[in-house]
Amino acid sequence: MTALGAERAAVAAGGVLLAGAFVLAPPRGRRGRALAALTALVLAIALAAPLAVFRMRYARDSFLGRVQAGDPGYALEHVAWDPIARIEVSRVPVPDPERSAWPSLFGTDRGLLSRLRLVVTQNNNAYTYAPEYGGDVSTLRGLEETVYAAAYPASLVPKPRVLVVGVGGGMDVLTALRFDAASVTGVEVNGATLEILRRTYREHFRPWVQDPRVRLVHEEGRHYLASRPDLYDVIQLSGVDSVSGTPGAAHVFSESYLYTAEALDLYLSRLAPGGVLNVMRPELTPPRDMLRLLATVVESLRRRGIERPAEHVMVIVDRGGTFVAVLAQPRPFAGEQVRRVAAWAGSNPYLHLAAAPGFTAPGSSAYAVLLATPTALALDAGLRRYPWDVRPVTDDRPFFFRTSRWSHLWPRRGVETGAPIMELGLLTLLGVSAAAALAFVYLPLRGLRRPGETGAARLVAFFGAIGLGYMAIEMALIQKFGLLLGHPNLALSVVLASLLLATGVGSLLSALVVRALGGSLRFVSYALCFVLLADLLLAFPRLSSWALPLAGRVALVAALVAPVGLLLGTYFPTGLDRLKQVSPGLVPWAWGLNGMASVVAPILAVAVSMSAGISALFLASLPVYLLAGFAALGSGRRA
Questions:
Q1: Could you give the CA distance from residue 184 to residue 217 in angstroms, rounded to a whole number?
Q2: What is the average pLDDT value for the chain, to the nearest integer?
Q3: Phi/psi at 126 (5° precision)
Q4: For residue 242, what pLDDT is reported?
Q5: Alpha helices, DSSP H, located in 285-418
Q6: Are the C-beta atoms of 234 and 152 separated by less than 8 Å?
Q7: Which residue ranges of the chain lie beneath pLDDT 50?
Q8: pTM metric for this prediction
Q9: Could you tell me if 558 and 498 are in contact, meaning their C-beta atoms sit under 8 angstroms apart?
Q10: What share of the chain in percent tops pLDDT 90?
Q11: Angstrom distance (rounded) from CA 449 to CA 447
């Protein structure tokens, strides 16, 4: 995908399938050959003109939507793919603070505004401007007015060492240079973004990319920090996520390991004495995402033994309440720091200080109320009463962007929560999948039913259980290993490839494996439970601490997944062989029941992990496979 782009990669996959069909089942008739030739022609057209064949329609109010509509001044210049996202570079008009949703991102300085003509977007979302910069720091005047500068008035270090997680178009890096940073480390997970900065738009970005104080690293931010002991005076995360795929993809239902309590523990531990953590994100109205982040910061500070977390936190909000910066540090903020931040925000037409130690903001914001809550128990009770779920998130429930609850499906009078997108999405997927399974599997199989067959109940228990259990384990592994690999897309690719390959090997060697483990699937279930518990208790707690390059982490995931897949692969062929001996007429039903369970199980698995946690989903598979082992035992004895 990195080399070809997603469109050409899809065409290449189609070509591989066509070539495989020719090798394994070459068309013999005239119609078959004609269809193959037509397929090859379609692939050739798609390869020659991928953008025309795979034409996208963009939201009208997005940058690419304006490009597509032909709005004056908007032009798409470049598109680059990597396994994580698509990165676009567009030429745009000079932004107008008075008409923008987030004027705090670029301030009012006309000189700075005139240099904001290039924008970098991720999946047509999560945009950052890429200012024109020739190397003269004085031309960066105006960046001190933006929300990117929030940490620097709070820092008392004259030449701070800065870490930026998520480089984008460089606004965070240039802001650090504006404040005379001694060093700036930019950690960027998207290889396509770094390719744009270093090569594709080399002349545009060279003055700061090649600045001796700046170092760019292709790595996931949390893993980079965990693998090094370096300390920083400012650690900055500026909207380091694109939520463009959140409602629509079952494997990435809004999990993010950048904003969990464990992640904040790590960030705070990598601050030098007097260092400041700055986490900025867009906010909804009324507050949700950043209120949850603030609650998670408070919990992290309390775990460090800090009894009054409010003395360690400041909150800056733009005038519309739609963009928020949370500042935190391990030691209490000094009065001088609060005065400097208050003066900086007070002089800004688009920002104000909403909460700080000893600072009384006009009106009580939700952030100030949260920080004023005296105890952890009182805070937890208050968060549970809040209309949205803004309780702290952990690595076991890393669904930061899911602030809805299942109870929102039944609105309460006087409480406006809007449509619970996650829950409605899951229920819709579940309904469509179940209906498809019934229509295309169950109903056709009814015509194959034979009278007099026995063992139907055991059949349902065994083949349904292994379908549900397999998908539960698969989904839990994808979500868990997203922490180690750094992104859900990488986890999806690596875990699926490893698990399916190991399952295939286990299926091939099923008779040998079952015989080695005592001759019964019951003992395979015991072995599987042992391996899964070992992963849960020994491997998973260390996922964030293994300091390995990406290739090493991929190999580690494959090694941890292989034993699980090997054991999982034994169930279906063993059960099918025994069923052929006992009730051969039920064999089609075995395939059908397993397929139906496998279709419905991923949606149920996501619902369980979002509601109870990934570990709960992982543990739920144990009794399912124990049931499968015992359900298969009786049929084996009869055989």
A1: 11
A2: 89
A3: 45, 60
A4: 55
A5: 289-303, 335-346, 366-372, 376-385
A6: yes
A7: 244, 246-252, 634-639
A8: 0.90
A9: yes
A10: 64
A11: 6
